[in-house]
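FIELD: query
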Amino acid sequence: MPPRLRVDDFGYELPEAAIAQMPAEPRDSARLLVLDRSRSSPGHPRLEHRIFRALGEELRSGDLLVVNDSRVIPARLPARRAGGGAAEVLLLRPIEDGIGRWEALVRPSRRLPDGSILTLRSGDRVEVGERLSPATRAVRFDGDPAAVMARAGEMPLPPYIHDRSSPPERYQTVYARPPGSAAAPTAGLHFTRSLLGSLEARGVRRASVTLHVGLDTFRPLEGEFIDEHQIHREWYEVPPATGAAIDETRRNGGRIVAVGTTSLRVLETAARGGSSGWTDLYITPPYAFRGVDALVTNFHLPRSSLLLLVTAFVQAGMSATSTLDARDTVLAAYAAALAAGYRFFSFGDAMLIR
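FIELD: result
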C-alpha cells in the first residue's frame, strides 16, 4: 500500500499580491499557462505561456468544450439580529422538504439559537433553524426566496477578494443560465462571446452541463490526511444533447475539454452512470479519468480539494509517475506562474492542462 497522503503535502507559499482582486478586462485578455502532461517529467512541467484568447490555437477541429452553465445567485444576505448586532446568511442550496427552506452558512451561528429571526436590509425576515452540519444551518424566508435575494442579496465573492467594485456580471459567465450556484465556475469567466464564436469557426464545438457550486468551494481540506476530508453533495445535470455531443466527439476522435473542475466532476460522475442527481465525487490522486481529455482551470488554493483534482489529472497524463512526482510537477508549474507574474484564484489567470 502506498503511504497516506497528507494535506500538508499539497501546500505552497502564495504571496498576497498574487491573488487577483479584479478580473481581466476584457475577459479573454487573461493569461493562459499551457501544461503538456505527456511531455512533462517529475518536477519539470512542459509549459507554454499564452493569452486566453489564443485558446483556439491549442485546440483542434472536432474537440468539444464542455462548460458549466450554472448561474450564480445573489446568495450573500447581510442582516441584523434582534438585538441589533450584525449577521450574515450565505445561501448554499434549497432543502427539498416542500416548505421553502435553504441550507446556509450563518454568522454568528453560535449566538443564534433555533428560531432566531434576522432582518435583511430590505425588511424581509429570515428564520434560523436547526443545524444541518457542523458548518451549516437551515433557514426559512417569509416570502419567495428568489424575490428576497433580488431585493436584499449580494454576489457571494470569495473572502480573499477584498475589492468589491467589479460589476456583479463579471462574476458570471457569459453563458450562465439556470440559477443555483453559491460561487462562480470561475474557469469560464475568461470566455467572451467573440472567443466562443471564433472557436466555433475553428470547428471546436461547445456543450453545457450544470453543476450548482456549493459549500466546498469555501472549505479547506479537513484533517491531517486527504482521505479524512468529506466533500458535500452538489446537484448536477447532463442534458441529452450534451451526452449525444460527447458520444459523437468520441466516435470521431475528438477530445473532451472540460472548462473548470466543476464540469470535470460532472463528466466523471456521469461516466460512472447517471445523467442527473447529486454528486459527492471527491477526486484524489491517483485517479482513472474516463470522461475528460483536457482541462481548462484557474490556479487553486493550497491544501484544497481542487489542487488534489489537478494533481490527479496531471498524474493521469504522465507515464509511470507517482502521486508525489505529479504533485511536484503541479507545484513547479505554480512556481513558474508566480515567477512570471500570473494572477491566482477566482479573478486570476488560467491553465490549460492537456
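FIELD: remark
The helical segments are 145-152, 193-201, 240-251, 261-271, 305-317, 323-339.
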